[in-house]
Amino acid sequence: MFSKTYGVTEWMRTTEFTDAAIILTDHTTVNQVRYENIEQIKEKGNCVMIYLNHNMALRIYKDAFVEGTWEACIEKIEAMRN
Q: For residue 2, is pLDDT > 60?
């Protein structure tokens, strides 16, 4: 599943939910987040905040998925966390 978020000119963040981890790609930087690091998920309208340990969070938008859906993604996240 993929989600893309566009920011300022020439900037894009890609969030990939793989079986092993969540892979975040920001321009030229790649980071991985393990599913067990997710502490809480909050939804408000189209916005989803995924809170991680160490006071970090990921913001994604439900309508930004270009492969899969938010509904399928949350099912995967819950399965991988358990």
A: no
